[in-house]
Design goal:
Elements lengths: L2 H28 L6 H27 L17 H8 L1
This protein binds fe (ii) ion (FE2).
The site of fe (ii) ion has 4 residues, from helix 1 and helix 2.
Length: 89
């Protein structure tokens, strides 16, 4: 694998880190039901963790001479709380 290919793979990972962070924020804000109250708070913690991952991957890409992307991979939304959690897995 060339350095350019490795940077491209890191950028693809970066897109997924962003997507996870965005999806977790959206799900935390829209998940409903008393049984999901604690899970909503946990999703926000995970969202922040994903952004830390994004920062680390961005630094790696930059250190290798690449340019970190700002593109975001596929996010999934649902009106159903149980489905949201399945999407988050
Ligand atoms: Fe991550």
């Amino acid at each position: 694998m060339t350095k350019e290919e490795f940077i491209a793979e890191l950028n693809k990972d970066l897109e997924w880190e962003y997507a996870a962070a965005v999806q977790y924020v959206q799900h935390a804000a829209t998940i409903t039901g008393a049984e999901y109250d604690a899970i909503g708070k946990e999703l926000l913690i995970h969202s922040n963790e994903e952004m830390i991952h994004a920062q680390k991957v961005s630094d790696m890409i930059s250190d290798l001479g690449g340019v970190p992307v700002v593109d975001v991979e596929e996010r999934k939304v649902s009106d159903d709380s149980k489905t949201m959690l399945e999407q988050d897995l």
